[in-house]
Design goal:
With 277 residues, this protein is α/β, with parallel strands linked by helices. The chain has two domains: 173 residues, Rossmann fold (3-Layer(aba) Sandwich); 86 residues, SIR2/SIRT2 'Small Domain'. The chain is built from twelve helices and eleven strands. The strands form three sheets. Strands 3-2-1-7-10-11 form a six-stranded parallel β-sheet, with helices on both faces. Helix 6 runs parallel beside helix 12.
Amino acid sequence: MEELIERAARDLVNSRYAIALTGAGMSTESGVPDFRGPSGIWTKDPEAERRAYETYYKFLEDPKEYWEERLGGPSLLGDLTTIAPNPGHFALAKMEEEGILKTVITQNIDNLHQRAGSRNVLDYHGNAFKLRCKDCTARYDVKEYDLARLWEKGKLPPLCRHCRGVVKSDIVHFREPIPSDVANQSLEEAMRCDLMLVCGTSAVVYPFAELPRIARQRTVDTAYRSSQAEKIPAVTIVEVNAEPTPLTEGRISDYLIRGKTGEILPKIAEAVERIKG
């Protein structure tokens, strides 16, 4: 494992544009409950999963009822304000601060990357601490709206301050399209990077899981180097995961460092700092 950590650090230092993709594995190490694990929310309560598949359509049909239900019951994930970033989050933020890592694209909605200090974060599935306009995609900090007061005065749903469109949680619900701005930026990052860290994700939820595959399809033409043209991969893909994934089995990733992200990523960040001198 130490050899692979050293390899990843050198690959990062030698990269021009490195990005990270992160999934639920990073959040569960901070204590955020998962959904489909052995003790997952939906494993224990299949009815909650069924309701989750109806949420987006409910919003489209009756935004007022959508908001009343959200405000009238506890969050499935509990109080995320009490959850702290773990060493893995801080390691990615440190590598961004040092200019190594350019962007984090995350499936997680818990805002932990931002709280750890990462600045360039794309919340692929939204952010639980933000609201988003359905029409113009303007985003607001959830504290900018007094939702409890709007509910009390019968003024739900909240309306966008830019276009007066209906505002929903920024969280991307089942069957809801990924917001076009985030989807496009994420695709641009996958097409631009020359190194991709894939951290704590099972890589089975689409379209997020397509990003490493899109990156892998890119090649560099080496015809300028020799008389015989050769195509070589344009990106190095490194997995940091507790278990092999379809990316491992399909040889999408170059190599897997097996373990917890909260333990492996700090070691990579330390090696990066040492190699840089």
